[in-house]
Amino acid sequence: MTKRIAVLASGRGSNFQAVIEAIAAGRILAVCVALITDNPNAYAIERAEKAGVPVLVLDYTLFPSKGAYEHALFVAMQQQKADLFVLAGYMRILGTAIVQAFPQKIVNIHPALLPSFTGLHAQQQALQYGVRVAGCTVHFVDENLDCGPIILQKCVPVLKDDDEDSLAERILIEEHKCYPEAIRLFCEDRLKITGRNVRIR
Ligand code: GRF
To answer: In this structure, are strands 191-194 and 106-110 parallel, antiparallel, or unpaired?
Structure first.
């Protein structure tokens, strides 16, 4: 059955684009019911409009508190009746209430091979650490940052002249393949979570 997907993004939205293209190409059996963004200037909004995806802007700066914003976001998410929420460069940490309200229904992509290099500037952290291999991880979202059960990972080499931008660019190419693939598996009901482990059926 066709799944309902809602995407949360704060910026450029290239992963969002990869997902909507995979849906349009019939590779993911889903409909993207909304783009929800905390940033009225997010380029992701233009991408949504071009693709005919409804946009919901919850401008974080217009809310009196983080709690008020989170409540509005919670209500907006509930209204989507989505089977899956896709965090695609959503730059805020989801509150516990939201994470607990949608168990195993929120996924994220992180530009590092988790559990290494959580949080911001993951690619820079990888370079500073001196790893030879970097990559990206698609995972379910739990209460801890970049920590839920891992669905897919892809790796790329770190080259000797890499800087943050060049490494980020190489990882992004893999992100754009990995995220639609993980979402496809979810939409085909092929992911079975047992504790920290995700089995692909
Ligand atoms: C990606 O590198 C993603 O892994 C991270 O934020 C970045 C978002 O890029 N979570 P985009 O907005 O999808 O282009």
So the answer is: unpaired
Residue ranges of domains in the chain:
3-200
pLDDT digits (tens, 9 = 90+) for 71-103: 999 999 999 999 999 999 999 999 999 999 999
User: Does residue 180 contact residue 16 with C-beta atoms inside 8 Å?
Assistant: no
For ligand 1, the distance from its centroid to the CA atom of residue 110, given in whole angstroms, is 7
Atom of ligand 1 nearest to the CA of 168: 2
Per-residue pLDDT reduced to its tens digit, 27-81: 999 999 999 999 999 999 999 999 999 999 999 999 999 999 999 999 999 999 9
Q: Which residues have a catalytic role annotated?
A: 110
Q: How far is CA 152 from the centre of its chain?
A: 12
Q: Mark out the alpha helices in 63-187 (DSSP H runs).
A: 66-80, 96-101, 122-129, 164-187
**Looking at domain 3-200, which of 3.20.20.80, 3.40.50.12780, 3.40.50.170, 2.60.120.10 is its CATH number?**
3.40.50.170
- Expressed in angstroms and rounded, the spacing between residue 13 Cα and the centre of ligand 1 is 7
Contacts of 1 (CB under 8 A, 6+ apart): 29
